[in-house]
Design goal:
This protein is an alpha+beta fold and 533 residues long. The chain has three domains: 114 residues, Periplasmic binding protein-like II (D-Maltodextrin-Binding Protein, domain 2, 3-Layer(aba) Sandwich); 161 residues, Dipeptide-binding Protein, Domain 1 (Dipeptide-binding Protein, domain 1); 216 residues, Dipeptide-binding Protein, domain 3, CATH 3.10.105. The protein has 17 helices and 19 strands. Helix 10 runs antiparallel to helix 12 and helix 16 runs antiparallel to helix 17. 42% of the residues are buried.
Length: 533
């Protein structure tokens, strides 16, 4: 009965709003944000929806290409001082904010270095309470961290060297905004959204629809000198049911869907994670590495179960998990077994020379015996805490550990409560994941830097050698940092504060109208180069 009503509902939607008729004259990219949208102010771009939309409306100093390499945006070039504390950015002089009546004659004002001083100071202003304050807090110097030397020269000053800074500056938090409009509209700027991006706001009816149109004054061009963007605009819906979203996508209601929800994974993909034959003529699928590592974490702080304080026990648990089988049967083949460290495939810094763990149950039993727990005898039951969405995965883990004699009880806790418990060190053993915020391996290695609290160091891991290498890696070039990162990961994996499970993969579905859209391991939505029929 539920499926019948769902089909009737979809049919009604398609009759009421025929996407073919609506987009007959213009190339309008149609998508859905099932998680909703809270703000279009880049200072609060904390989730995927806001990052995706802000990426269409704004620009920063720098941006990422499809291989996650840092490339120019409003800053055409930069230089870094020898001590790594001073970053000088040289700005383009042909970038303009979107047209708005506040600007003289109603046309967009040119972006100058002082706009970045204002925008970055706004991020760290406690009164603004930006969710992006972590980018600069503790990193930039206390007085005048940002300077405008002239209209096209912007300077950023650090307290200590931080090598991944350029990657940080590609985040949507670091977008440039116009002071006069932000200060006029205050909190309502979240709906006004005047930036410099390839698209500009038309209207936003919250929880209903968001419409943007092509910015005719956008500054970027393609390699042939053609102005971007190619398409005329985008229309965003806010259906919160992923199953409904996918069904409407199949009917042509949307041009794009990101990710594979459990509700339709078996309908879309075969056991090996490939698009089913009956759908190949209706849509296209892209599958690339995703900057996310799923893992199990052990608390290295004060814990209830003393057995997990023993490194040999933690290593045994690592060897007891059949990651290939887990991915095949629980994830339709999506994901790569994590046989290395915490840094996932697809990110700058992944290294397959990291000596991780494979499925070796006999070795796991030998390590348990060496630790003083032959066949798990004498070991207290281990409590594995997890979000209910991962019940099948934790049950698989529990069964795997029982096969080597380790008894596990699964404790299912809502995600927000579990994260709070992890932060307070109230759970001994937990399922977690880390999605990279920026395209540098440091973002993942910071999870084990002893000076960091939780988050991100939920395991309370502390190793003096690891910490010294981490600090050193912030002061060297990319080549030297890669060597230090390798050494750090090998140290951490030997100590086994985590059980890396798999490196995630990104699945995107595109409808027949889409000729091309860029994709990268951060799952950023970038429509300025999208092409449509």
């Amino acid at each position: 009965m539920k499926v019948f009503h769902l089909i009737i509902y979809i049919s009604y939607l398609l009759v009421a709003c025929n996407p073919r008729q609506e987009t007959a004259d213009k190339k309008i990219f149609k998508l859905n944000l099932s998680a909703g949208l809270s703000s279009l102010d880049p200072a609060f771009s904390k989730d995927q929806s806001s990052m995706w939309m802000c990426n269409q409306l704004y620009n920063g100093l720098l941006q990422l290409d499809n291989e996650l390499n840092v490339s120019p945006s409003i800053a055409k070039s930069y230089k870094i001082s020898d001590d790594g504390l001073k970053y000088v950015f040289y700005l383009r002089d042909d970038v303009y904010f979107h047209n708005h009546p506040i600007f003289p004659t109603g046309k967009g004002r040119r972006v100058i270095a002082e706009d970045f001083v204002y925008s970055f100071n706004r991020i760290i202003d406690k009164k603004v309470a930006s969710t992006g304050a972590w980018l600069f807090n503790g990193k930039v110097r206390d007085t005048m961290p940002f300077e405008a030397i002239d209209d096209t020269t912007f300077v950023l000053h650090l307290k200590l060297p931080f090598r991944p800074l350029l990657s940080l500056l590609t985040l949507q938090y670091c977008s440039v905004v116009p002071k006069e409009i932000v200060e006029k509209y205050q909190k309502d700027f979240r709906k006004i959204a005047i930036g410099t991006g390839p698209f500009q706001m038309v209207k936003w009816q919250e929880n209903n629809a968001l419409v943007m149109k092509r910015n005719p004054n956008y500054f970027e061009k393609d390699s042939n000198g053609e102005k971007l963007p190619y398409i005329d605009g985008l229309k965003v819906s806010f259906l919160n049911d992923r199953a409904v979203e996918f069904l409407q996508f199949l009917q042509g209601g949307f041009d794009f869907v990101s990710g594979v929800d459990k509700s339709f994974i078996d309908k879309a993909l075969d056991a090996k994670g490939q698009l089913k034959d009956e759908l190949k003529s209706k849509l296209k699928m892209v599958r690339v590495p995703y900057m996310n590592t799923e893992y199990l974490g052990f608390s290295m702080g004060k814990v209830k179960n003393p057995a997990i304080q023993n490194k040999l026990v933690r290593q045994a648990i690592n060897y007891a998990v059949d990651r290939e089988k887990m991915i095949l049967y629980l994830r339709n083949g999506i994901g790569v077994p994590a046989h290395h460290g915490i840094v996932p495939q697809g990110i700058n810094g992944f290294n397959d020379k990291v000596k991780g763990y494979s499925y070796q149950p006999q070795l796991a039993k030998e390590l348990l015996a060496k630790a003083g727990y032959p066949d798990g005898k004498g070991m207290d039951v281990i409590v594995l805490s997890s979000n209910p969405n991962y019940q099948d995965l934790t049950e698989f883990i529990a069964k795997s550990l029982e096969e080597i004699g380790v008894k596990v009880i699964i404790q299912l806790t809502p995600g927000s409560f579990l994260r709070e418990a992890m932060a307070k060190n109230e759970v001994d053993f937990f399922r977690a994941s880390w999605i990279g915020d920026y395209s540098d391996a440091e973002n993942f290695l910071a999870l084990f830097y002893g000076a960091n609290s939780a988050p991100p160091n939920y395991t309370r891991y502390h190793n003096q050698k690891y910490d010294s290498l981490y600090v050193k890696a912030m002061m060297v070039n990319d080549t030297e940092a890669s060597k230090l990162y390798l050494e750090m990961e090998n140290i951490m994996i030997e100590d086994a504060p985590i059980v890396p499970l798999f490196y995630d993969e990104l699945i995107r579905f595109m409808g027949p109208r889409v000729i091309y859209m860029s994709t990268n391991a951060m799952n950023m939505l970038d429509l300025k180069t999208a092409k449509m029929n």
